[in-house]
């Protein structure tokens, strides 16, 4: 009995002694490690850490500096409790310093069997008294901070292999096909942090993603990171800067855009139409590059690919400027808008939509489309004018020209519109002047010199006007027809007794006083249609009014028009014989005719301006 009791007491004593030895050993490990942390003795920290912890948290010489960023508590460590996880692991709960900041230190047995090594440190941050604390692993935080250093080193190196090694597949694919000169420029823009002693990134982690903000001179670098198979890789980068040229919303989007520019230049240099078709807009390819002789406009593609670029973003469009000697090439790109109709997805496919060439330091400006297509467009347009082909005229004209002229001219008058200065012969090109977005092509067409004014519009070249050799009126065909279309429509209405057309082309006053009172055109004893369609002698546009003088040598008409929106309506006209002996005002003559119909045999009756009918006085 005594022997059994003695054995039990002995075993308990040995267990207590063993536990005390373990606590003493762990306390010593913890205190030694805390001292090394405070002193930031990297060599000692590595000796006292597990291989995994050293590799994740202490692998770079700069780890000592990054430990400062974590703001680990300073002071002597006091072991509060030691939990035995298993025979090879311990979890030590400690309090640091006078403020008793809690830390959890994970220990693992040294592989040589002697003592313990730190495998991780868990910091619990209490944001408020009531909120739960947030636990953060020092190894995870240090791994992220050191990865950021390695990432920045790769960008600073400018080496393709190094950069591709620290980027995700999605970002790397966008970077891989960039010309080395452009990759180096982008890498320099991202890698230039001016960090030296002030490298203090701010990081936010959430699962397998992290956002890192690195202060830099006059702004910030933002890195979007993804943890791929245990390694942090860059998924995108952005730069915030008050200087517009230095700001960058998405390096990944820029890389994809530049890749398209490079593919365009390579395809153009090799005259590879299939490649050009894949990187250009349908408008530019189908209307220009797919049919043009590319050798007619040489572009120094290799020189541009080896030079620098300038990037100018605009909503869903972007411009990339490339220089060669005194010339600058501007590549305009467009991408579809996202669902919100205001932004562009970073992986959206940009397509080259236009190329503008600034020659001799910008003294001469021309678009690729205008150089290739200007002469052909003029030939086709001249034929469409001769044939009065509305569909071709609308398609080949600018929106402004079409809306002011061709869409307003009814089929009933199109063939009669006054365009005598444009002879129905093929134009002979005399000269071409480029001032992008406008190109002026001067031609000899029959006996006259004309200038076709072309404009670049979304990859197309369209005709915006034709300049005529005239005196006494604007030389713009567009301005002339904008005024003359309502005159001819009015004449058509008079000739065909078409009151609907007359109401549409008349001022409010004429509609009230005349066309609302009658069922047919009043007879005034003058050849109105003949006078309104006589050759133009003078035409003036003054603010909201226009004045036209027409004469056939026998009769004269002076028409006054009012502007309504982008068009004009007839307000009144003076009709006269060419010798000036006879003259009448159209509106007054029609009012007299209407009054004579309403009150036959009575003279002096006046139709009120309100167009209200006057009842005869009772007898």
TrEMBL record:
The keyword Signal applies. This is Lipoprotein. Residues 1-17 form the signal peptide. The lineage of its organism: Bacteria, Pseudomonadati, Planctomycetota, Planctomycetia, Planctomycetales. It comes from the Bacteria. Keywords: Signal. It comes from Maioricimonas rarisocia.
């Amino acid at each position: 009995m005594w022997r059994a009791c003695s054995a039990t007491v002995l075993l308990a004593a040995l267990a207590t002694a063993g536990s005390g030895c373990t606590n003493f050993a762990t306390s010593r490990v913890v205190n030694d490690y805390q001292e090394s942390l405070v002193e930031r003795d990297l060599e000692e920290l590595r000796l006292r850490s597990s291989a995994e912890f050293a590799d994740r948290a202490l692998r770079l010489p700069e780890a000592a500096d990054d430990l400062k960023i974590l703001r680990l508590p300073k002071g002597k460590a006091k072991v509060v409790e030691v939990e035995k996880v298993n025979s090879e692991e311990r979890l030590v709960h400690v309090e640091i310093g006078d403020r008793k900041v809690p830390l959890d230190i994970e220990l693992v047995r040294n592989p040589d069997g002697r003592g313990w090594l730190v495998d991780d440190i868990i910091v619990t941050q209490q944001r408020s008294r009531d909120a739960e604390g947030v636990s953060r692993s020092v190894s995870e935080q240090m791994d992220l901070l050191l990865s950021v250093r390695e990432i920045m080193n790769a960008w600073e190196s400018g080496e393709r292999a190094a950069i591709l090694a620290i980027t995700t597949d999605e970002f790397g694919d966008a970077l891989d096909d960039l010309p080395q000169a452009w990759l180096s420029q982008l890498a320099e823009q991202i890698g230039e942090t001016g960090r030296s002693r002030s490298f203090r990134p701010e990081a936010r982690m959430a699962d397998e993603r992290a956002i890192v903000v690195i202060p830099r001179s006059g702004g910030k670098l933002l890195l979007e990171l993804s943890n791929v198979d245990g390694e942090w890789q860059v998924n995108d980068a952005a730069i915030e800067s008050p200087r517009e040229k230095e700001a960058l919303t998405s390096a990944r989007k820029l890389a994809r855009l530049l890749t398209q520019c490079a593919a365009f230049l390579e395809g153009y240099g090799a005259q590879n139409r299939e490649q050009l078709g894949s990187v250009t807009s349908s408008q530019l390819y189908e209307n220009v590059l797919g049919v043009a002789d590319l050798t007619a406009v040489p572009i120094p593609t290799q020189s541009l690919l080896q030079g620098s670029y300038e990037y100018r973003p605009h909503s869903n469009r972007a411009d990339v400027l490339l220089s060669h000697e005194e010339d600058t090439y501007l590549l305009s790109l467009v991408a579809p808008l996202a669902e919100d109709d205001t932004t562009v997805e970073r992986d959206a496919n940009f397509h080259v939509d236009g190329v503008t060439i600034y020659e001799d330091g910008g003294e001469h400006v021309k678009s690729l489309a205008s150089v290739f297509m200007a002469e052909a467009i003029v030939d086709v347009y001249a034929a469409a004018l001769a044939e009065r082909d509305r569909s071709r005229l609308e398609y080949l004209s600018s929106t402004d020209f079409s809306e002011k002229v061709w869409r307003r001219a009814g089929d009933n008058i199109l063939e009669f519109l006054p365009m005598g200065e444009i002879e129905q012969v093929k134009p002979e090109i005399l000269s071409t002047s480029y001032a992008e977005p406008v190109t002026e092509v001067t031609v000899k067409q029959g006996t006259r010199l004309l200038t076709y004014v072309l404009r670049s519009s979304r990859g197309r070249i369209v005709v915006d006007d034709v300049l005529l050799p005239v005196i006494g009126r604007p030389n713009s065909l567009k301005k002339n027809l904008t005024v003359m279309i309502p005159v001819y429509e009015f004449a058509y209405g008079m000739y065909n007794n078409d009151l609907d057309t007359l109401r549409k082309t008349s001022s409010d006053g004429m509609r009230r006083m005349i066309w609302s009172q009658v069922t047919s055109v009043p007879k005034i004893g003058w050849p109105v249609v003949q006078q309104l369609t006589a050759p133009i002698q003078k035409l003036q546009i003054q603010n909201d009014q226009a004045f036209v003088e027409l004469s056939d040598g026998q009769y004269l008409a002076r028409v006054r028009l009012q502007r309504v929106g982008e068009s004009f309506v007839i307000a009144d006209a003076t009709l006269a014989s060419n010798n000036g002996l006879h003259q009448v005002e159209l509106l007054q003559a029609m009012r007299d005719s209407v009054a004579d119909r309403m009150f036959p045999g009575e003279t002096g009756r006046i139709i009120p301006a309100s167009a209200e009918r006057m009842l005869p006085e009772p007898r």
